[in-house]
Every structure is written in structure tokens, then in C-alpha cells.
Amino acid sequence: MTAPGSGAPGDGAPGAATPGAARRTTAFDDLVAVMDRLRSPGGCPWDAQQTHASLLPYALEEVYEVVEAVESGDRDALREELGDLLLQVVFHARLATEHPTDPFDIEDVAAGIAAKLRRRHPHVFGDQATEGATDEATEATNGAAGAGAGAGEPADGGDLHRRWDEAKRVEKGRASALDGIPHAMPALARAEKVAGRGRRAGLPVDAVAGRLTAEPGAGGGVGRRLLALALEAQAAGLDAEAELRAAVRELEAALRAAEADSSDD
After folding, report:
1. What DSSP letter does each residue of 94-160 carry, written as one string?
2. What's this model's pTM, rounded to 2 decimal places?
3. Which of 19, 23, 101, 227 is the most exposed place for a label (fewest CB within 10 A)?
4. Residue 182: inside a domain
């Protein structure tokens, strides 16, 4: 991995050295090397058998464990779980190097996301447009910025989110503001994502949802009532998934207490 620090420390340039950068780069290089050894001939038989598809359950599990560590406030667990999640990225990137016609590696992954962040944050990087950014995407992003803030003025969070949405839409050639939302997302989170995207695009989310929830649907309308609750949480500035997880933790704690009481009898 190319070490950061091509710019002078403190010069504000992308890639400028930061305290601890060398240690972090060395540790990351070590992780990449360990993963390469495990996957290579003579390494670990289990690692050698894995595919992108077979690793998906582990990636999802690690994401959930990061969420649990954050919500529990356990800093040691958070450090460990972030490492486990990082391993999934490195593992998938190592597998990708073996593709016969379209290989890529962790350098390509890192370069791609760095370029994307610069391209979608012109309010931060200004004219430091990365190679590959389209004029259309830049114009769309800057145009959206102009709609929400005066020249040279910082945009608020909502405006920045709208600019991000518009830049992605132009860059990826999406026909709808709702394109690109993964269908595999948990239902409550996806409901909030669809509604949020729709609102930022100026769509009549509340009116449409109101008509849907007023009509009986399949299963006695349970799904539509859940949708209404998700939108209610979003309107209140709450994360419906997080609120439900907290309620389930309370239920679990109460059930465990009841279980303990019954075993004492």
C-alpha cells in the first residue's frame, strides 16, 4: 500500500502526513500481507475455499456486531469489531485479485472511495477534482449547492445531503431518486431510506404514505402500519431500527429476569 504523506505535514493537501500515519499504514500493510498468506497456496484451507458469496453472512454479522458495540458503549468491543469488519473488506479485495478478466485489489478499492469522496465534496475540496469526475456530476453538485446556499456560504446538513444525492444520481445515470437503495436492507431501515430520498427529491412522501396506510393491505395492513411507525420515527428525528432494537433489548432483559425468577421457584 502506498504510504500517505506525499504532502508536507500540516499543509492541508490530500495525503498530507498525520500523526500516527506511518504506524497505521504499517499495521494495515501487515493485515493485507496476513490475508494474502492465508489465501495463498500453503495457507489456510478454509480461507482458500471462500468466495464473495460465501463470505456475505460474515460481513453482515460483523456489521451487526459493530452496531451492538456502538450502542453498548463498549470501546474495546468497538475496536475489535471494526477490525473484524475491516478484515471482510480486505478478504473480499484479496478474492477480487483472482478474477480472470476484471481483477482489482485493496489499492483500487481505497483509491476509488477516496476519489468518490473528493468528487462528492466540492464544498471541501474545491477545484481539486479527481481524475474521472464528470463535468455533469460537478455541475449537478455545484448547482444543488447554489440552490441552498449563497456563494462561499457553508451549506447546512440537509443541503449537503441533497447535493450528495444529486451527484450520485448524475454520476451513476440513475433515472429515479429512489434508484440504488438496496432491496436487502432491513425493512425499517429501507423504509426510512426511501422516505428520506423521496423527501429530499421533493416527492410527496407523506401524502402517498398517508393514502397507503389508510387502506387495508395484505395481512390486515400490518406492513402499512409498520411503515407509518417508521415514518413517524423519522419525522421525530429517530432511527426506527435503533428504537426497535432498544425495545427488544428491554423485552429480552425482562424475559431473562422472568426466566431467572421461574428457575428460583
Report:
1. HHHTT-SSS---HHHHHHHHHHHHHHT-HHHHTT-PPTT--HHHHHHHHHHHHHHS-TTPPP-HHHH
2. 0.65
3. 101
4. no
